[in-house]
Give the backbone structure.
Amino acid sequence: MNAVIDVRNLHKSYDDQRVVDNISLSIKRGECYGLLGPNGAGKSTTLRLLLGLTDPDSGTVKLLNQEVPRLAREARLRIGVVPQIDNLDPDFTVEENLLVYGRYFGMNEKEIGSRIPMLLDFANLTAKRDAMVPTLSGGMKRRLSLARALVNDPDIIFLDEPTTGLDPQARHLIWQRLRELTSQGKILLLTTHFMEEAERLCHRLGILDHGRMIAEDTPREMIRNNIEPQVVEVFGDRVEEWALAHAAQFSQRFEISGETAFCYVGDAQPLVAHLQAHAELRYMHRPANLEDVFIKLTGREMRD
């Protein structure tokens, strides 16, 4: 498989609580791998272990054939990171943020300067070259964070919820740019809470819960292997009463959450015909998606 990221049997505990529990994964060049999970599932700790910012209790990590954490500094010279929260320098312009960041990788000003026009074009920020960071919109700041992560032409890019808080236009532009990176052979390791983002971008996914990898596959196969193919969402003031009386008759499985009954079915037509005779209920019929799988595997309860 020629894995560029190779993780074997990774464990990490804090105060006798297992935060990362026997995680293994392999990611090859040109692949976008999504790491999904509820809050507290172990995603952030896993990223820190992979970057060599936290030492594992046991297990092995190799990035670009460099052992981490022993050779983490050398490995990070070929890695870009887009953090969850923008940490751009507000006292610098767009261009100066790229210049200063490039120096952390030992690049001289000429090297960085030769890359800046391409990076600004890639992030659609050429017209904002001399703008101060506080004047940028949220979408511009996220695109600048992505451009900054590419200043050293990395082989691997870690992206921690890269489109959180963005409007649809900004999100779609970043998705387009990330697809361009994988087409160039870059390796993306993505964490996200947007299931649509994971379905669109990721070649493979791993779902973490309570520190363990509970599922791993392509998005399409994960949906096909873990959930019924059709979903009918039923809404209404008396939906719970209706669901308890009728949902099991038409569904392989159903759940009630708030004012919605989620009915998971192989053939939705009998249920739809039944609902059309009940004008007091509203419904939506759709194919199953990754969010349905995520909720089935990790539950609907809130996580802090």
In short: The radius of gyration is 22 Å. The chain has a mean pLDDT of 94.
